[in-house]
Fold:
Amino acid sequence: MKKLILCFLLAVLMMLGIAAGVSALGQEMTIARGTPKIDGKIDDVWASADRQQLGYCKAGDRKTTPDALPDTCKVYASALYDDKAVYFLFEIEDDEFTFESTLGDWKNDSIYLYVDEIGDGDPTWTDQQAQIALVPNEGMEMIPRKGATPADYELEYTFPDEGHCVLEFKYVPRVLQLKEGVEFTMDFQYNDGVPGGTRDYCLGWSDESDDASNNSMCWGYATLGGEGGAAAPAASDAPAQPVEVVNIPEKAVTVDGVIADGEWDGATRMILNISETSTWTAHGGGIVGTDGWKKLNHTDKDFETELAFTVDGENLYILLTRVDSTLNFASDNYHRPYSSDCALMWFYDTEYTTQYGLQLLAANKSGEPVIGYFFMDADQNSSDNLMELDYASAVTKITDNGYVMEAKINMSGMDDLTHAMLAGGGINVTWCAVNICEDGWDSDDGAHELWGTYNYQAQYTGVNDWEYAPKVQLIDANGNPVEAPAKTEEPAKTEEPAAEEPAKTEEPAAEEPAKTEEPAAEEPTKTEEEPAKTEEPAADTPAVTTGSEPAAEKKSGCGSFLGGGLIAFVSVLGSAWIAKRK
Structure:
C-alpha cells in the first residue's frame, strides 16, 4: 500500500513538474492576405506583413538569460497567405553561416518551423502538426523532422551580402482552412551553429524555455486576417533597402499627425537612415553633403525617416515620419528647399522627363508645417506655398526627438499631375531628407553655410538619376495593382472625326475660291491699295502663335485656341474689306 501511495505521489509530482515546465507565452501574429513570389527576395507585398523578431534566446552554449539576445545573430519572421498557401519570410543576420552537420540537425544554421494546422492544444506529435527544418544550403533545404509534412512546398533563399540571408517558404497546408478569421498555432526557432561544434545560440519566437520540440502548448497564435489586415512594420524594424516599386493604396486618410491602426497599411515606406543609407552608392542614393553623421557618431536612433503615400481621386496623402536627435526648424523661407530639417520629393514623368516636386517642411520657426511646390523641366522654379494657395493642408505632431507629419494635397495645384498619370505606369518617385546638425543654425540670417561641418543629406535611389527612381504603382483595397486608365482605347474614337474632317474641310475649300475670285476680278487695283493693312495682322499673329505652340501642344489646348482666334480674326478683316469695297 505504501508503494502505491508513493507511486501516486511521484506521478502527481511529475505532472506538476511538466505543468511547471509549460511556457505558454502565446505570442500572436496576424497574417495578412498576399501572394509573394518565392525567389529569396523581399517583394513589396511583404510590406503589409506583421514582421516580428525572434526575441528569446532559449538555448545554446553561450546563452545567459532568455532576454539576453546575442549581437552576432538576429532573425525576423513574417507571414502572408492566399487561397492556396501560407508564405513565410525569414530575414537572418548571422556573423558566420555553418552547414557541417547532418540533414535537419540543429547544429546547422537553420530555421525550425512549427505548425499545428488545427491548433487545439493537442500534445505533440499528431497528424496535423509538423516540425520542419529549413536550411539555406544546397541539398539540405526542407527536411521534415517530426509530425506531418506539408501537402506541397516551395523554398528559395539568397545571401544579399555577407552575414545576411533571406529565406522564403511556401507551405501548402493539409487541413488548414485558408480564410479570414481562422486561427492556428505555430512557432519559429533559429539554430546558430558553429564550425566543428554544436550551436552558440538558439533563438525562439514564442517559446523561451526550449520546449517547442516536445510541447505545442508553448507555441504562438496565428490569425488569418483580411485584406491588408496586418500592421505595417515599424520604421525601426523594417528593412531599409531601396525598393524598385512604391505601392500607393487608393484610399483617404485622416490628416491629424497620428498614425491610426491600419491607416497606412499597404503603402510602401521609403526609408532613409544611417545604417543602410550610408552604404548606398548607386544612382544618387546615399548620404551626401558632409560626413557629419560620422563625426557625430550618428546611428539610426539619431536619424531615421520614412515617406509613404496614398491617393483618393485627385487628393494625394503623404506620411512623413522622422527620428532626429538634432531637430532644427530654422527657417520661414519656403523658397529655400534646403533651409532646415526638411524633406524634398519628386514625381518624375518618364515620358516628358518633367518633375513635380514638393518641399515638406514639418515646421517653420513658428512650428507650422509648410508645403512648397516646384515644377522642373530644365531649371528649378522657385516654389509656391501650396498651403497658402489652399491646395494643401498638413498637421505635424512634434516630440523631443522627432515628428509625424500627415498632409493632404490637391493635385490640381501641381500643374497637370493627376490620378490617371500615377496609375499610368510612367511615373517614378524618389526623395531626400536634409538633417541640420549645426548649433545655432538659422538659415534666414545668411550667415551660415549649408554644408558646413556637420549638416548632411540622405538620398533615396534616383535623386538626380531619375530613370532609376522607384516606379509608382497604385493598388486597390485588396492590394492588387490598379490598371492604367483606358486611354489607349481612345485613338479609335479620335480617328473617326479625323476621317470625317477632311470631307468637311474640303467643302469650304471648294466654295471659297469662287467667292474670293470675284472681288479679285472686279477690282484688281484696289487689292494693291491696301496690302499693308491686311499683311500687318497676318504678320503679327503668326509670330505670337509660333512662339507659344510647341510648349502648349504637350500640356494644354492653348495652340488650338490661338489658331481658332486667328482664323476668326482674319475672317472679320475679310468681311470688313468686302463691305468697304461694296
